[in-house]
Design a protein that fits this description.
The protein is an alpha+beta fold. The protein has two domains: about 10-25 and about 110-255, D-amino Acid Aminotransferase, Chain A, domain 1 (2-Layer Sandwich); about 30-105, no CATH class. The chain has seven helices and twelve strands. The strands form two sheets. The chain has a six-stranded antiparallel beta sheet with strand order 1-6-2-3-4-5, sandwiched between helices. The two termini are about 15 Å apart.
């Protein structure tokens, strides 16, 4: 079952969190409940409320502590300020009833040209080993706190962005790329160890302002549009070729 999809962000987070190598690189993430939200906002200046089964950055709400007991609530390109005692009521106006949500620690992320960014690592398993088929930076659209392509994010080559962030320090750039690869492979091992049949993964990785590397979430059916939009099509061609290999291996398996 090479294209098995695991929708729940919480299930994937728990699978990765079992790994001692990944635990310190995962932001605090808990099932949503009003009391959980309040405790999380006590611990963190910013939190995100996300649909547990959501995708493409849709339905995410950001809550940020502000002075004098206020909370700044943002969704899409809209926002409002409320008193903290009315926070839950205001939030629930943005959430869909009867759908599961999670609360995730917000991070002080590094920006690229004053816009939020993260890194999509695309992994595939056409044989017995996971392979990184591509890495690209997703730069968010102006005014948005998500970087998804469907929400206006644009792709930029990873080396170009890291070279800018680390001020042309090649040693730091290479060390960061090595760490990103290491975390992506560990995440793939943790997820495929828990959920048999996963063959494709998109691991979303972010850098905070201190240089710490975080795994934001994992996607078991990642899109390829980011790579297709790059002028250099080599990573996109690799992804397509490996998809074909996975499909071929699946046909062989079914015949047995």
């Amino acid at each position: 079952m090479p294209f098995r999809r695991i929708q729940s962000k919480l299930l994937k987070d728990r699978a990765m969190r079992r790994s001692p190598l990944l635990h310190s690189h995962l932001p605090e993430t808990l099932p949503y409940h009003p009391d959980v939200l309040k405790r999380m906002l006590d611990r963190h200046a910013v939190v995100f409320v996300k649909p547990d089964l959501g995708s493409q950055g849709r339905g995410i709400v950001r809550l940020k502590r502000i002075k004098h007991g206020g909370v700044h609530i943002s969704w899409g390109l809209s926002s409002r300020r409320v008193n903290r005692k009315y926070m839950v009521r205001a939030l629930h106006q943005r959430l869909r009833p009867y759908q599961p949500y999670l609360v995730q620690q917000g991070l002080q992320l590094t920006k690229y040209h004053h816009r939020l960014m993260d890194i999509r690592v695309f992994l595939q398993k056409p044989g017995s080993k996971w392979l990184i088929s591509g890495k690209v930076v997703r730069v968010g659209a102006a005014g948005r706190f998500v970087t998804n392509y469907s929400q206006g994010g644009r792709p930029v080559h990873l080396s170009k962005v890291l070279d800018s962030i680390y001020r042309h320090d090649q040693q730091r750039t290479e060390a960061a790329i090595q760490k990103i690869d290491q975390l992506a492979y560990h995440a793939a091992a943790a997820l495929s160890g828990k959920f048999r049949g996963i063959r494709v993964l998109g691991i979303d990785i972010a850098l905070d302002r201190t240089g710490r590397i975080w795994i934001i979430e994992a996607n078991t059916r990642p899109g390829t549009q980011l790579f297709k939009q790059l002028k250099d099509q080599s990573m996109y061609r690799t992804i397509v070729a490996r998809y074909q290999r996975i499909k071929y291996m699946n046909r062989i398996h079914r015949r047995k």
